[in-house]
Design brief:
Elements lengths: L1 H22 L4 H24 L2 H31 L4 H5 L2 H15 L20 H4 L3 H16 L1 H26 L8 H12 L12 H31 L36
Helix pairs in contact: 1-2, 1-3, 2-3, 3-5, 7-10, 8-9, 8-10
Length: 279
């Protein structure tokens, strides 16, 4: 019994140490792990990009194939270790980085059944967001958190704005369909709506345009209206950002239970699940 208890303590201690290395960047081992991981991500992304070049693939396709599977196996082992050392694996699996980590290895396995899908492995570049933790750029983590909070706080205003824009382009597209007609390229109301969206967003493909005087007058109004509408969501988000005052000192410590980040440096417990940050 005593041996079992000692083994359990040893297992818990090693699991905690593994969690510090994999999930955190406060220790030298954690920084080294994340640095090696980022180098591997960059190299594997380059392999995917180079493999898509036909001439290089014809010459070095076999070597690139071996490299791709080598990186995939490494990332698969890392993904399993992250699940293993997390108190509640479900929280990590369905977190942002958990989903990205999974998407980084799936394309290679899917390519066994659907050739060509391995090129979707470029999604691994999203994992480079971990560079913020490695370089200990905590201030960037804070700003990213503030921006996320501002977007979430302004979501209802943006939804109302988008509803208004959709209503407006439907009306304008319908008007242009009535004014110009099929003989000028506006063969249907949806095509008129397409023109209204392209014009209002100031993209202007030029594949369809009004030819009558009245249509050109309406187009001028839509263009001017587009410039004023583009500034609206920017103003909404900016207003929310000014209302947020987050000047806390954020650490890179990750909760072992729910894998959440963004804790204050003087925090003892996770502000998301209440678990101890220093088990």
């Amino acid at each position: 019994m005593h041996a079992i208890i000692n083994f359990q303590k040893f297992f818990a201690r090693e699991r905690l140490r593994l969690h510090e290395i994999i999930f955190e960047a406060e220790t030298p081992a954690g920084k080294l792990f994340d640095l090696l991981l980022i180098i591997s991500i960059m190299l594997s992304t380059c392999v995917v990009l180079i493999d898509s070049i036909k001439d290089i693939n014809n010459l070095y396709g076999q070597y690139l194939f071996v490299l791709e599977w080598t990186f995939t196996i490494i990332f698969s082992m890392e993904y399993c270790l992250r699940i293993f050392c997390t108190g509640k694996p479900v929280h990590y699996i369905f977190s942002f980085f958990g989903i990205v980590d999974l998407l980084a290895i799936l394309p290679t396995y899917i390519s066994l059944f659907f050739p060509g899908s391995q090129y979707l492995g470029v999604v691994r570049v999203l994992r480079l967001l971990r560079v913020f933790r490695v370089l200990k750029l905590v201030q960037y983590m804070t700003e990213m958190q503030r921006l996320t909070q501002a977007l979430y706080a302004s979501r209802r205003k943006i939804e109302v704005f988008l509803y208004g824009v959709i209503t407006l382009v439907i009306i304008l597209g319908s008007l242009m369909y009535v004014i110009e007609g099929e003989e000028n390229g506006f063969t249907s109301i949806p095509r008129g709506i397409y023109w209204a969206i392209v014009t209002m967003t100031t993209v202007g493909y030029g594949d369809i345009y009004p030819k009558t005087t009245l249509g050109q007058a309406l187009a001028s109004i839509v263009m001017i209206l587009g410039y004023s509408i583009i500034a609206v969501p920017t103003g909404i988000i900016t207003a929310e950002l000014t209302n947020l005052e987050s000047k806390h000192d954020i650490t890179t410590i990750t909760c072992m239970v729910c894998s959440s980040e963004g804790h204050d440096r003087d925090a003892l417990y996770c502000k998301f699940c209440g678990a101890s940050l220093y088990a």
